[in-house]
Amino acid sequence: MAGNLIYITDAGRAALVAPGNTGTTAHQVAQIGLATAAFVFKPDMTALPNELKRITTFGGDTVAKDTIHIVIQDDSADQYKLYGFGLYLDNGVLFGVYVQNDPILEKAAASMLLLAADTVFASIDVTKLVFGPTSFLNPPATTERKGVVELATQVEVDDGTDDSRAVTPKTAAARYAPLVRPQLTGPVTITSTSTDQDGQLSVAAASGALSRGAKIRFHGTFAAGTTDTNARLIASIRAGYDGGTWGREYLDFWINRTPNDANSDANQIRAMRITYGGRIVVGNREDDGKTALQVGGDGAFTGGISSSGLDAGGANIRLRNGRDVLLRNDGSNFYLLLTNNSDPGASWNGYRPFTINMATGVLSLDDTGAGTYFGGALNVVGQLNLINGTNEARARFGASGGYFFGNAAEAGFYLPSNGAMFAFNFTRKNLLVNGKDVWHAGNLPNPAQTTGITMSGQFLASEGTVSQPGISFVNDGAPDTGFFHVADGAFAVTNNGRETMRFLAGDPNRVLVGTTVDDGHMLQVAGNAITRGLHRFGTGSTTAWANCSGDWGYFRSNGNVSVGSEGATGVLQLIAGNSEIAKLVPGGRMTIGGTADDGVNVAQVAGSMRAANYFIAGQGTGDSGLIGIYKGANGPNIGFYGSSTVGAGALTISAGGTERARVTATGKFVVGQTGDDGSDALIQANGPIKANGPIKGTSGVGALVATNGGGTGQTSVLLRREGAPVDQKQWEVLHGGDGAFTVRTVNDGYSQSRDVLYITRGSGIAPGNMGLMPNGGRVLIGGAVDDGSILNAEGLVRGRGYAVDGGASWATIYFKNGAKTRFAIGKSDTDDFAMTAWADDGATQSKVLDIARGTQIVSFAKRPTWAGGAVPYDTGNFDPNSKVNKAGDTMTGDLRVKQPNNTDARGFVLARADSTAQAWIHATAKGNYSAWATMNPDGSWKSNPITVYNADNRVEFNSDIHVTALSRFYNRPTLNRDGWQADFGLRNNLPGYDSWTYLRARAGGGMEIINNAYDAVTWAVDDWGTMYMRGQETLRTDGNLRLGWRGRWLGEEIDDIWKNIGGKANAGAQCQKGERSFYFGILNQQIHLPDPWCIDGLEDPLNARFGETRIYGCWYRNQ
Question: Can you give the residue ranges of the Long-tail fiber proximal subunit trimerization domain (predicted)?
């Protein structure tokens, strides 16, 4: 142990002081105590804490002004961990101690503790400490014997031939690579003969857990663009088992996918995997477990790709994506094939889109006829064969929907949309259009001429239709007049697209005129047929027959003259003057004058008919059109006039030689006059009308109309009670000459009246003013009882405004309960507003309030009371100094908010402009703490960002704290949270920068600085003051500094410098013995003391024989 600082106790320091404080006195270290646990040094301690025992087997010597070299030995059977030791003087005083947090070493029961330590004393003269002899600790060390051994130099270690000197960790580290994390600085060559059980290099995972793999990492430096020459992690090779045991082996190649200053595998991505079974997966894709080479991305090859075998589905090359595309060479043919699904073993389906015969080079497209599309021009050099086996081959061109075809019988073009087709028939050796031969010079020797032809054979025309006859005529327009074929043995004549006659062959042959329905008769006419002459049929007594619609009419003379029809619906018609004058129809009805049968009346006459007092005059235009009953000049008579006759469709009633009433053609009933007065009244009476029952008018407009007959005078309706007292018989509803509507009372003689209601008329349709009871009387509304008031309403009266005009006097509204007045409001005679109340007697009146119109001051006769009995504050009961103004105020005393109970919290609420809660400063329900809470816009609680606890006055911030001004702490701030390694974040937010540095509490004590990415500790100091940079110990508590570029400590560097300086002796200088001392052997053997060793001493052990004298050597230095 080199350079360990020892702590001096107060008692130890006092022991070195001579009596009378005249200097220092020397003491011998008599015992060393051993501590088996760490402890905290205290200057006043007098015994070693956690002391196991004290030993005397030790030695020591002064090796520098402030350093003593101590050798401690314990060969007992005790087992313990040594954390520190204490030096006890010969007077029993604990002089000093050394202690550390980690064990110095651990002693087993069967081992010997041998500890050499250099102890540094910073403030005392170490020459005053004396140790006993150390010779008993210096036997020569061998492989069988414990003792002193010389340390080998680096050269001796590098040479590797010395078997007597000991290797130090430093020289060993410079020569040999450690087992844990070795760092080799030169080329490494491994030469051996490998077997099936080993190899020149084995990289193995540590046993003891699942999912551990082997890994090799590769580092390099940047190539350009930077001055940073530090090596960085680039790639790694990893091997392991992928989620299983045998059969799941893999070898992976990983490379950085992002800048990787953290040297972390998390910043790498897999570039390639070799799996069990020889599969290679390139890129970061999942292994499908089947394909030998799988690439997770695009592939580029500068050479060819060769496939000499087929996969499980029969493909040389497989293109996968939902449905696979296969490239296959089976030795006979090359195929492009398709699958119905995507799988490494999926075989092809029934389609054959592309095939090349390897022997002939023949290319076959779409062998199975699924369809082939060319998106551009198709150029064929040579013959183009379209073959569909023994079936018809087709070729489709353009958007017509038709196709060219070829089969064993013919080749041509067919249009399915209308059946049009032309084809060359191989048997007939002719071109056919729609199945018909095309005439040409080879099969038509005498072609038809437009100037006329003579046919020596048949002339065959197309069948045609009624609208397109097979034979038609020029200049016919459509042409749609001619002859067309109907069926075998039948043709017809069409005129302007309408069939007029049809000829049918059969038994008998038939001719149909105006119909297409054949009933089997030789001549069938659908309509009237005009003939001249006598038609005789048969040999019977019937002279003439006529057929009409299948029923026979006849004129018969078989002893009696009979005219009639054999049909159930046949009629007998009488003709005169070449027109019908009468007709007898089935059912016994007769029409005269050519009128149509109405199917009801037995006799129907188109014209006048007279029988005694009943007559029907002519109904033609200009006729009187009279139909009626005439009882002489004085009547009574009833007349009906036709609608288009002189009477214009009127009904008249006459009596006493005078027309008394009329129903006009427009449906009006006129009484007492002979004509319509031109008004819209349906009933017009020239005189009074009296009804002993109700008169009801039904109409949306004008059901009952009272009119003045003309002019601007008044019109009215009188409501009369004949048995009422004098001058109380009549009410009148009047439309006055001034346009006003009035309801009034009138006397019996209609000479006096009193208005009850009147409404004047404004301009246009606008009403004017309405007056109620202008001549006295009162108005009662809603069942109100008459109390003498001019207007009484029982129920709510609603209006948008009311005016009570009292002139210069009072204008008052009274509120009553029956006959008793309770309240009144109104304008006083001084034009102020007042409210008064009446006592229960209905007479005693008291003022409630008044409002001065000029000042608008409200004066209450008594102090008001608000809802719930609350009394408003005023100068009589309110001290403004004891209240706070809502609009803002200054308080000189405390404002207390008391919790009403132990469950409800109370505090201060800060509200937004829209009255929603924003913050709540409150105390908790049980009084444990007070808090500042933020609120949601709806007023609900959000969180407590600031909490103050009553028990210890601590403040807890539960929010993001921003400090924008200088802050001072007058006591220690503490960052503490369970499970958190506390740290500070320091941000550089200058323009162009945005970086962070973190100051964090170190595990075990101390602190550390974290880099911007928060993934590396760049600087740290432990709890004992040792400083680390990038994880490497850099500065120790004794001031020793690690020189990374030298690979050693500054103390070692200075020691070497001093050694080099001390190795030179000045003229006349006295050389001192150095710190190195070594036992070389005894005189009875060969002894070699190489340069610079000098004989340091001879030792003759007690009772030793000659030749057993021991020889010691040392180095000398110039000090």
Answer: 299-356
Using alpha carbons only, what angle is made at residue 803 by residues 802 and 807, rounded to the nearest 5 degrees? Answer: 165
Q: Is the pLDDT of residue 550 over 70?
A: no
- Joined together, the tokens standing for residue 107 give 């002693």
Write out the H or E segment, with its range, that includes residue 547: strand 542-548
Q: Which long-range contacts (CB under 8 A, 24 or more apart) does 971-976 make?
A: 975/1001
CA distances from 494 to 10, 489, 503 (A): 148, 17, 12
Give the list of residues 6+ apart from residue 645 with CB closer than 8 angstroms, or none: 619, 620, 621, 622, 623, 624, 625, 626
Six token digits for residue 1108: 């057993």
For 215, counting Cβ atoms within 10 Å of its Cβ (0-12 exposed, 13-18 middle, 19+ buried), the class is middle
Q: How far apart are CA 251 and CA 274, in angstroms?
A: 5
Structure tokens at 947: 């909490």
* Rounded CA separation 743/976 (Å): 98
Highest mean pLDDT, choosing among 120-129, 139-148, 413-422, 930-939: 413-422
Spell out where 830-951 has E strands.
Answer: 833-838, 845-851, 858-860, 906-911, 917-923, 929-935, 941-949
C-alpha span between 898 and 927 (Å, rounded)? 11
The answer to whether 38 and 101 are in contact (CB under 8 A) is yes
Phi/psi for 1058 (5° steps) reads -65, -35
465/499 Cα distance (integer angstroms): 10
Does residue 636 have a cis bond before it (omega within 30 degrees)?
A: yes
Angle formed at CA 394 by CA 391 and CA 397, multiple of 5 degrees: 175
Q: How many separate helices (H) and strands (E) can be counted in the chain?
A: 4, 78
Q: What is the 3-state secondary structure (H, E, C) of 565-624?
A: ECCCCCCEEEEECCEEEEEEECCCEEEECCCCCCCCCCEEECCCEEECCEEECCCCCCCC
Rounded to 5 degrees, φ, ψ at 460 are -100, 120
Residues 240, 1112: Cα–Cα separation, whole Å: 59
Q: How far is CA 262 from the centre of its chain?
A: 38
DSSP letter assigned to residue 427: T
Residue 158 has φ and ψ, to the nearest 5°, of: -65, -35
Mean residue pLDDT across the chain = 83
- What's the Cα-to-Cα distance from 171 to each of 69, 102, 165, 489, 1040, rounded to whole Å? 22, 25, 12, 132, 20
Lowest mean pLDDT among 372-376, 800-804, 909-913, 1025-1029: 800-804
d(CA 781, CA 773): 14
- Say how far apart CA 628 and CA 635 lie, in whole Å: 12
| pLDDT tens sequence across 631-677 | 777 777 777 776 666 567 787 888 887 888 888 878 888 888 777 87
| CB-CB contact of 415 with 400 (8 Å) | yes
Phi-psi region of 1107 (alpha: psi -120 to 50; beta: other; left: phi over 0): left
Closest CA to 141 of 173, 163, 159: 163
What type of residue sits at position 736? Answer: G
pLDDT digits (tens, 9 = 90+) for 150-194: 889 999 988 988 888 888 888 888 888 888 878 787 888 889 999
Separation of alpha carbons 52 and 80, rounded Å: 9
Which residues on adjacent β-strands are paired with residue 495? 498
> Is the confidence at residue 549, as pLDDT, over 60?
no
Token output for 21: 């404080």
Query: What is the chain's percent helix, strand, coil content, to nearest 5?
Result: 5, 35, 60
Strand partners, 524: 512
How many angstroms separate the CA atoms of 737 and 715, rounded?
Answer: 8
Q: Give, for 223, the enclosing helix (H) or strand (E).
A: none
The DSSP letter of residue 725 is: P
